[in-house]
Amino acid sequence: MSIEIVNVGKRFGDFVALDDVSVSIPSGRLTALLGPSGGGKSTLLRIIAGLERADTGKVEIEGVDATGLPPQKRNVGFVFQHYAAFKHLTVRRNVAFGLEIRKRPKDEIRRRVDELLALVHLGQFAERLPAQLSGGQRQRMALARALAVEPTVLLLDEPFGALDAKVRKELRDWLRRLHDEVHVTTVFVTHDQEEALEVADEIVVINEGRVEQIGSPDDLYDRPANEFVMRFLGPVTQLGEELVRPHDLQLSTDGGTGVTARVTRITRIGFEIRVDLTTAGGQPVTATLTRNEFLALGIAVDSEVRVRLAPGSPSTRVGTPAQGSAAEASLAATGS
Q1: CA-CA distances (angstroms) from residue 117 to 145, 163, 173, 210, 227?
Q2: Sequence-ordered list of residues with C-beta below 8 angstroms from that of 189, at least 6 positions apart, any chain
């Protein structure tokens, strides 16, 4: 394993930022730390980087105990949300900075910087100042600068949070392709579920300083460990005592199994149709259908339907607590 976080705890006064967190982050993978604001994910990233000291526990990077090492001794690259660029230096000099302070030979610096600028598609902007770049270009420059010193681990703290939705989408795709080329162990913090599901090989869900679940995007979405993970990683609705995904509900108009419900509202959202229902017992339920599924049903407001969960679809009982020690449950789920 590239990074081992063992029983790490961190407090800020009376606030518990991390509570006995243990996580194994595999070498060469792209891992997302996902959770709500204030959940502890950025604190954990900063502890890995050495920018914060843990109160308890230890951090190992590539088998070396890094708990007491300063950031410059950990061989990690760190990319902040707001670029942290040197405004008076060109793009080339920004990318070269880490190599220059390490006193690498000039020919080596020039060659490495040219390679990285080509990799992040900024070769034509090498002599511009950061202020002359777009937000997406500045973030690509920051990534190139972090990669210049060939770090063992690349850490990204909400790297696309300051960008608009279209640019974030483009950079997510680009980051995934970049990672597949360079294969450096990468950990990034995000509160954007779609971003984590789309980009990461593995996701660590953190809430209130504890790990709720660790697994692949499919594992977490299809087999959530508890109610929090179910609610946090995608849309949910409630049918009886179960939380379910709206797109996993099946509607029928020809009797059969299921709960009787009446259609109260129909809303088209792009290629999907959202159908709001009220069961005979007065429970509100939402189902999501494709356009073709909706047209085949031929339903309208006030139609009576049967609603049931599609066989094999994920669900979790309302009020399910975190399963034992959050870290133990997560590690057991992944077989680590």
Answers
A1: 9, 21, 18, 39, 44
A2: 32, 33, 41, 42, 45, 156, 157, 158
**Residues whose CB falls within 8 Å of the CB of residue 221, separated by 6 or more in sequence, listed in order:** 197, 233, 234, 314
Angle at 72 between CA 66 and CA 77, to 5 degrees: 90
Q: Distance between CA atoms of 233 and 193, rounded to whole angstroms?
A: 6
Place of tokens 């034992």: 324
pTM of the full predicted structure? 0.81
Residue 8 gets the label, from left (phi > 0), alpha (psi -120 to 50) or beta, of beta
pLDDT at 171 over 90: no
Distance CA 64, CA 50 (A): 14
Question: Looking at this protein, which amino acid is placed at residue 111?
Answer: R
Given a contact cutoff of 8 angstroms between Cβ atoms, the answer to whether 141 and 118 are in contact is no
Q: Around Cβ 112, how many Cβ atoms within 10 Å?
A: 20
- Lowest average pLDDT, out of 134-143, 282-291, 315-324, goes to 315-324
Mean of pLDDT over the chain: 88
Q: What pLDDT does residue 162 have?
A: 62
Cα–chain center distance at 307:
32
With cut-offs at 50, 70 and 90, classify the pLDDT of residue 206: very high
DSSP 323: -
Instruction: Give CA–CA dist 171/179, Å, rounded.
Output: 12
Where do the DSSP E strands lie in the chain?
3-12, 15-25, 30-34, 56-61, 64-65, 76-79, 153-157, 185-190, 202-207, 210-215, 237-239, 242-244, 249-252, 259-269, 272-279, 284-290, 304-309, 315-317
Q: Which of 10-14, 73-77, 245-249, 301-305 has the lowest mean pLDDT?
A: 73-77
Q: How many residues does the structure list for the chain?
A: 336
Please say if the pLDDT value at position 83 is more than 70.
Answer: no
Gap between the Cα atoms of 212 and 39, Å rounded: 11
Residue 277 and residue 288 in contact, taking contact as beta carbons nearer than 8 Å: no
Lookup result for tokens 């009787």: 260
